[in-house]
Design goal:
This protein has 738 residues and is α/β, with parallel strands linked by helices. 44% of the residues lie in helices and 23% in strands. The protein has 4 domains: 141 residues, Rossmann fold (3-Layer(aba) Sandwich), CATH 3.40.50.2300; 127 residues, PAS domain (Beta-Lactamase, 2-Layer Sandwich), CATH 3.30.450; 160 residues, Alpha-Beta Plaits; 264 residues, TIM Barrel (Alpha-Beta Barrel), CATH 3.20.20. The chain is elongated and about 160 Å long. One of its GO terms (biological process) is phosphorelay signal transduction system. This is EAL domain-containing protein.
Length: 738
């Protein structure tokens, strides 16, 4: 055995030198053969007997074996049988001096590439070897190409079958010629069920016309492509034709590409023999689009049409009524007392109330009517094809009746009503905006008359609405022109008869209507967002008046400031208060903030936080109109209260000084038990004064003593009566109310 060039087991066709095994038992011939091939780019290995040859074949891979048939230990035929039996991949060129035909036939039968008789010529041997290696190289290259094609096909099939899309081909008749496994995953059809069948078996009946249009060869343009969205039927049945194509639908986006045949000259034939298509499942996207579209036109809380959709439907109803020359009604519904429920029980319960109210209102309507939520607690209704106004009146009465029944909000039973305004087309307006505006005005007219009712729009209501707008504009100008003024009603110590304080009352010096009391414009200011700037003005005016009071000798007087709930809810209230006190040099100990019970229930945690900050600053707190609101007793321990004021509605009930008035007695008892100061409002008779004093309340205010007066008059009364205080006397109390 002789190996001249070391190497590995890689085949020659993969880029390595061809390996040749030279087998001959005659050393001279073997050496001559080696010398003949050594100058070539071959890897040569020699063997002198059959055993060495077999060992070499087992040790490495050879491309070509040059084999002598006569060997001392085994024949060349036996070695070839060994090669074939072991499946060794190599070619064999047999070299033999045997002149018999049987040896050559035996070698060729065993797969020999060629048979050379000794002695052979040098050129014959080299050409035979080169031809054998060339054939082998071509075979190996072809095998590599085939392997790559097979790998590529397997990869392509894997990618196609693993695609999230349905990939298919159709022939010119529209029959499936290929479809991937995704069709089974999405639609439930196997390949066997679709191959050779027409595409129409999977297309929804309503989309067949579009499918014929896009799959038609005549419709394909030069790019041979078209996009279309089709619904495909899912196969969820168990056998029958009707059940195979069930009503379960999947939305599919199809991209069909024409596959053109080539003519003999390489040009494109006009006919389209097949279609390649990709079907992408867009069901989730279509559902999301439908949901987004639905939410854009519907109220999420009540599932009713929103303002945008309502206007669209009202616009269509107006067009139809104009064409048919009929009437229609627009209704504006506002839930009464909803804000109280929302503030008392919280927004979650408020949302539940809106949902229940919406269901009740919807049950009162016909199929063609539209109920929509405008926002908050406001609803709008359009009643098309109205026969007469009695129809709209009947619907409004149904609304009021259904809302009168109690609402159960997880154990909380609440009662509400509604204010309903009605505008009729074409008498009350011919446009959407006119009808809605006039129905809204009619609704506010119902609210002004006590709520819980309905009213048709009338032109006179527009005058009232204009008056409100004019009042709002005038009130804004009153702030700019300093037409507002603080008046003061003295408070009396009934035992000594001395003035010990006063309640501040806001007045408006209206240029046309004269002096207006707070009750004539402050409720309107709260509804129209003017309470905050008015409260800002009041805070500055009080501190300015208090500085004048101090300059007149009343520097020990304490001022009580009655706060609007809106003002307390504003985040910068505390800083505003501290800033005005600093600006006018007022001690916080001179200020007492007066709150109502409604503040206690609107947002108690926030109110407590704000009031505690004021107390830390040095300001005291009083609760006004005690007993007229809700939950006062529950909050007395939580709020930093220093004073209780008895509301005048309880005082007016006192007609006999020897009578029994349990509410008055209970309030006095609560104040005494908690160590709180007590003030009675609205005292107008001596009987009332004597009863209150006899039962423990000595601080009073009312017409029995003084009417409200301007600051200059109040200071003059104090100076006339000598009521300015010495340092060792009790501090008088000045209560200021917005």
């Amino acid at each position: 055995m002789n190996e001249q060039i070391p190497g590995n087991d890689a085949p020659a066709a993969c880029g390595f030198l061809p390996r040749l095994l030279l087998v001959d038992d005659e050393p001279r011939l073997l050496s001559s053969l080696y010398e003949l091939l050594r100058d070539r780019d071959y890897h040569l290995v020699t063997a002198t007997c059959g055993k060495e040859a077999v060992d070499e074949l087992n040790r490495m891979q050879f491309d070509l074996v040059l084999l002598d048939l006569r060997l001392p230990d085994m024949s060349g035929h036996e070695i070839m049988d060994y090669i074939n039996a072991r499946g060794i991949d190599c070619d064999v060129i047999v070299m033999s001096g045997d002149v018999g035909i049987e040896a050559a036939i035996g070698a060729l039968k065993r797969g020999a590439y060629d048979y050379l008789r000794k002695p052979y010529s040098r050129e014959e041997l080299l050409k035979t070897v080169e031809n054998a290696l060339q054939k082998r190289r071509l075979a190996v290259d072809n095998q590599c190409i085939t392997q790559r094609l097979e790998n590529s096909e397997r990869m392509y099939r894997y990618l196609v079958d693993s695609s999230p899309d349905i990939i298919y081909t159709l022939n010119h008749e529209g029959l499936f010629t290929f479809i991937n496994d995704r069709a089974y995953q999405l639609l439930g059809y196997t390949r066997e069920e679709l191959i050779g069948r027409h595409y129409s078996i999977v297309v929804h009946e309503e989309d067949l016309e579009r499918a014929r249009y896009v799959f038609s060869g005549r419709r394909l343009d030069e790019r041979a492509s078209r996009n279309v969205e089709l619904r495909l039927k899912c196969n969820t049945g168990n056998g029958s034709a009707e059940r195979t194509f069930s009503n379960t639908l999947t939305a599919i986006s199809l991209n069909a590409i024409g596959m053109h045949a080539l003519d003999e000259e390489g040009g494109r034939k006009p006919a389209v023999p097949g279609i390649y298509g990709v079907a992408r499942d867009i069901t989730d996207r279509k559902r999301a689009e439908e949901l987004i579209s639905y939410q854009a036109y519907h109220d999420i809380l009540t599932d009713l049409p929103n303002r945008m959709l309502f206007k669209d439907r009202l616009g269509l109803a107006v067009i139809q009524a104009k064409r048919k020359q009929t009437e229609l009604a627009v209704m504006f519904v506002d839930l009464d007392r909803f804000k109280l429920v929302n503030d008392t029980l919280g927004h979650v319960k408020g949302d539940e109330l809106l949902q229940q109210a919406a269901l009740r209102l919807k049950e009162c309507l016909r199929k063609g009517d539209t109920l929509a939520r405008q926002g908050g607690d406001e609803f709008t209704i359009v009643l098309p094809e109205l026969r007469d106004r009695a129809d709209a009146k009947g619907v409004a009465e149904k609304f009021l009746e259904c809302l009168q029944k109690p609402f159960d909000l997880d154990g909380h039973v609440v009662h509400i009503s509604a204010s309903i305004g009605i505008a009729v087309y074409p008498k009350d307006g011919e446009t959407i905006d006119e009808l809605l505006r006039h129905a809204d005005i009619a609704m506010y007219q119902v609210k002004a008359l006590g709520k819980n009712g309905h009213s048709f729009y009338h032109d006179s209501m527009l005058d009232v609405s204009h008056q409100k707008i004019a009042l709002e504009q005038a009130l804004r100008r009153a702030l700019e022109k300093d037409e507002l003024e603080m008046y003061y009603q003295p408070q009396i110590d009934n035992v000594t008869g001395r003035i010990i304080g006063a309640e501040g009352l806001m007045r408006w010096n209206h240029p046309q209507r004269g002096l207006l009391s707070a009750g004539e414009f402050l409720p309107f200011a709260e509804e129209n967002g003017l309470m905050l700037p008015i409260s800002d003005w009041m805070l500055g005016a009080l501190c300015r008046d208090l500085r004048k009071w101090n300059e007149a000798g009343g520097d020990n007087i304490r001022l009580s400031l009655n706060l609007s709930p809106q003002y307390l809810d504003r985040g910068d209230f505390f800083e505003k208060m501290r800033g005005e006190l600093t600006r006018y040099g007022i001690s916080p100990a001179q200020i007492e903030v007066e709150i109502t019970e409604n503040i206690c229930i609107r947002n108690p945690h926030y109110a407590i936080e704000q009031l505690n900050k004021l107390c830390q600053l040095g300001v005291s707190v009083a609760i006004d109109d005690f007993g007229t609101g809700y939950s006062s007793l529950a909050y007395l321990h939580r709020f930093p209260i220093h004073t209780i004021k008895i509301d005048q509605s309880f005082v007016k009930e006192i007609h006999d000084e020897n009578g029994h008035y349990p509410v008055i007695l209970a309030i006095i008892s609560i104040a005494r038990g908690l160590g709180l100061h007590l003030v009675a409002e609205g005292v107008e008779t001596a009987v009332q004064a004597r009863y209150l004093e006899a039962n423990g309340c000595t601080t009073m205010q009312g017409y029995l003593y003084h009417r409200p007066m301007a600051l200059t008059s109040f200071i003059r009364v104090l100076q006339t009566q000598g009521q300015t205080c010495a340092p060792d006397e009790p501090s008088p109390l000045l209560a200021i109310q917005a």
